[in-house]
Design brief:
The chain is of the alpha/beta class. The protein is 29% helix and 22% strand.
Length: 266
């Protein structure tokens, strides 16, 4: 294991950790940051490459024995970590992961879906915390293939990873450049039935929806929902019945309800 006690804050090995609250440069740098012991542990256990681990010196004795020999460890004093990160950080450890080659539909879809497989597509989900919650639900219900549609937050962004509890690292994240064309390809290639979540009057009540093979759930923007062209391209629209004059649910909560329903029906 390579362990370096850093004294020069201009050391280029610290670049990935600088001002992480105020910027999201994962697409540019091809890196991403995992904060805290749980996310660091899940990054190290994943198929993603770990470029380095940053340790608070006062926690080094606690964490060093848990790290693999292959990882580069950078050790800083607590006050130095605050200067690098741009905020007060008390969890003792961060890690820098390397972003792999992006996967795109249709080329990287992989093996045909199983008859009872459920997939999710997030389209225009801009809020990182909502996307993180959706990805955490996907992992919890065993939904491994997740489509990241246009206008959606970066699934490896710091806040997304934090809210997803690192479960985003376990999923197959597929980018869609044209979700309408990809919906048609999925239907024609694998007979995947698409269900768009929508509050419009002609949507089916969720409890009446049926599964006849693999299913793709489409969820949209927190405020505006799914684009009209996506609603037209989906085979069905479904809605969740609500009481007490409640007209909508948070997108991550609604997504979890719909996922649970389809993952529990044969």
């Amino acid at each position: 294991m390579s362990v370096s006690v850093i004294t020069d804050l201009d050391d280029p090995r610290l670049d990935a950790y600088r001002d992480i609250r105020s910027r999201n440069w994962t697409y540019v740098s091809k890196r991403f940051i995992a904060e805290g012991p749980l996310l660091t542990e899940r990054l190290l256990a994943s198929n993603y490459e770990t470029e380095s681990v940053l340790l608070d010196r006062k926690h080094a004795a606690q964490y060093l024995p848990t790290l693999p020999e292959s990882v580069e460890v950078l050790v800083l004093n607590h006050e130095q970590i605050e200067l690098i990160l741009g905020f007060d950080f008390h969890r003792g450890v961060l890690a820098c992961g390397v972003r792999p080659k992006q996967l795109f539909l249709p080329a990287d879809f992989g093996a045909p879906p199983l008859p009872n497989e459920t997939l999710v597509a997030a389209i225009g989900v801009q809020d990182p915390e909502n996307l993180g919650s959706i990805l955490r639900c996907c992992a919890g219900f065993g939904i491994r293939r997740v489509i990241i549609g246009p206008g959606t937050a970066d699934p490896l962004a710091r806040r997304v990873l934090r809210v997803s509890m690192g479960t985003a690292l376990r999923l197959q994240l597929l980018q869609s450049k044209n979700i309408v064309d990809d919906l048609a390809w999925l239907r024609e290639s694998f007979a995947i039935t698409s269900y768009a979540t929508s509050l419009r009057d002609d949507s089916l009540p969720l409890e009446s929806a049926e599964r006849r093979g693999p299913v793709l759930i489409l969820v949209g923007n927190e405020r505006y929902g799914l684009p009209e062209e996506v609603l037209r391209a989906a085979e069905h629209c479904v809605r969740i019945g609500m009481d007490m004059e409640t007209n909508s649910l948070n997108v991550s909560m609604a997504s979890g309800i719909v996922m649970h329903y389809f993952c529990r029906i044969a």
